[in-house]
Batch of 2 targets.
Target 1
Amino acid sequence: MSYRTTTLGDGTVAFDRGTSLLVSGSSMDVQEHIYDLLSEAGEADETTILISTDRGAPEVVRSLRERDAFDAGRVGFIDCTGREGPEEVAGAPVRRLGSPGDLTGMSLEFAKLVDRFDDAGAGDRIRVGLASISTLLMYTDVRTAFRFLHVFTSRIRSGGLFGIFAMDPGMHDQQTVNTIRAVFDCEAGIADDGDVDLRGSGFVTE
Amino acid sequence: MGSEQPTVLVVEDEPPLIEIYARWLEGEYEVRTAQNGSEALEQIDDEVDVALLDRLMPGMSGDEVLAEIRERAPGCRVAMVTAVEPDFDIIRMGFDDYLTKPVEKEMLLETVERLLARSNYEGLEQELYSLVSKRSALQSAKSAQEISNSEEYAELEARIEELQADIDAAMPEMESGEFVAMVRDIESGAGEDVEPPEGDVSDPFAEDSDAAEDDGDRDADGEGSASTEGEDR
């Protein structure tokens, strides 16, 4: 079973299990695309883990609800905005980190959420979102970010999950963008007019 | 490096258990043993690749010994041996893995093997970063025309591809605990001084006649690692 989406261009795109996709474009556009991609998890009996560096958990819930795609039992959030708050928002588990630079904390909370879905028998069909790498890069150097993302995508591959990562190339120098880009199987470039340019491997267009 | 056996240090306060673990390990590894914390510290040096540490030893606690090992042998992987199944937080405390008592032979050998594989993976992965960032520098500095005509660039591409295949082969199944431990190591910068398994990181274009030989090594190490799933249950 693949991870399907109709949000990237006209047709349906099916991503292989274990694939990690980079969604690149202006910050606002890529955020919206990440939520669009995550919101299709419910239709396919998948679960969702979102690591959010910019929007707090209540806002994340609102973004999913706007898409009619919020199911408290099938999502988990890692809120890295540093905001205080409860461990549940609208019934969904929220793990909180002090900063987007706490990579160990991020991986630990991710592992615990996967465990939780595992126990519920849904640990191998997870859409994993990270929004965004651009914010991460304000807290760590490129080398650390590259290595973290490389290990993270290896874990996603090994678990048969689907990784969806956001980055705004306009915020970084070209060399940084090219380095980070190399971690991913495929990339969806979102142009200012909304056109999507999907390239790389790990998917088929139907 | 190739023919030398990796060294495993077993720290356990019950002599019969030491004997059993040592017997299981002896076929493939150089084994050192210690009955308590202070003996463990006498045995530890940077030759030790993996340490199995009983967390609740009399005298000196496993946590104290761990801190000392990190100091003296930064490249050593440490698995905690414990009576109670811990959660991922022990990874944050600095352990690389754990074994729950009673420890069975297969589990023990597999854990040691995976810890060694992880060291190998991390070395390769650091090399990957240096090659990828070099390629990115070329991509930003040169025109598309120059890049497509560059033999240097083509070689770099080939090396990166080869390395990525090696990395995938080094750890085909990465579990959650391993993932957390690896991120912890990346974040703390640990292992950055550890020598990568192959010699010439700084010059990706040097002759690499030893590549085939290295692959052979890795295959040999990989035997018996086929079934890793389902071990948890």
Note: The mean pLDDT of chain B is 82.
Target 2
Amino acid sequence: MSDPRKAQEQEPTTHFGFQDVPESQKAEKVAEVFHSVAAKYDLMNDVLSGGLHRLWKRFTIELSGVRTGNRVLDIAGGTGDLTRKFSSIVGPTGQVVLADINDSMLKVGRDRLLDKGVAGNVQFVQADAEKLPFPDNHFDVVTIAFGLRNVTHKEDALRSMLRVLKPGGRLLVLEFSKPGNPLLAKVYDTYSFSFMPLAGKLITNDSESYRYLAESIRMHPDQETLKAMMVDAGFERVTYHNMTGGIVALHRGIKP
Amino acid sequence: MLITGLLAGVEAGLNRALRLDGTALPRLQALSGKVIAVQCQSPALELFILPSGDGLQLAAQWHAPADCTLTAPAASLLRLALSREKTAVLHRPEVSLDGDSAVLLQLAGILQDLELDWEYEISRWLGPVATTLLAGHLRSRVNLASHGAASLKQNLADYLAEESRTLVGQREADARFAELDQLKLALDRLEARIERLTSANKSDA
């Protein structure tokens, strides 16, 4: 008979912020974070980024090259910022799928989009980025904005995204990254570990989730590492654009 | 990123204005999915316009082919924006238009026909009673100002033409021009007559 404690000890670990946790527990812990912040997610995004997240997302849409009639998958779509814009661009002949592993975020996103009259060409799917429940060669564009760092097996997720993309389709990964300027990095560290948890405490009464946010950003691969991961997963012509001094980077790869 | 931010601000303002016209957004819906590229030559700038039922989306770059590309210097683009005779501006040699020009002309037409219901916007902030009072007051002021301006123009023209005699009056000028026209016609007739007599003399000789 196998000893469960021994089995747990043998299980590979992954990072959850600065902690090491068994791989099987990361998704659950990330889910707890997002259940906690879902209700005030948009407000916190505006407060913590000073509204800059809207510009980062705008830039993502500009680079996506989405056209009328395209099929778009917005993974970790959360409250639906990108989905809303994509829905308007692809029109009634296109389709946008807002996928999120977290049902609280998905509900907030769905309600918000419906309240704004976005319906008809949008579908909401609760899905794990590592095992996307879509056919091969199905989407023209796949985006994942501020979601990849929360995925346990990033390589599996990238391969899954490659699988569902049509040949010639584009993957856009918008994610926090590493600032290029050491001085900016220092200021950003102070901001992340002092102001972000404090703002989280004051607005959502949850400083831990925002401490996790800051820690998970530091544990996420930097620009070049993520680019190499995308190339390894099978993407071609992988490029990235630094925004706000490299605090955020947008990676773009094409399925051959 | 700065240009993206700037365009986001312009887009928000523009779409707010478009929402004040009840017909603009349904007309823009017909252009949904079209991409218009505007390339300014001096200074070198590029702007992409994507109309939809929600308004206009402005982008500094767009990684998909445009349906219509307008290339012109900044001065011509400004002239195009302000002129009512847009087709005349589009035919100028420094302006080039590639692709489906109907998309651009349709968009220009929608923007030109805008009739903003500013009273509705004010009523959202001040309420219907205050808006009616304010709108009535503003309207009477605008009427007074426009009548005042027209009256001032007329009085000034009368003074300069009739009283100070600094300028020739319009009617006086018209009469002089009519006399000159008559004189010119008479001269032409005389010239033709002389020519006829000269040729008759030559043939007799």
Note: The mean pLDDT of chain A is 85.
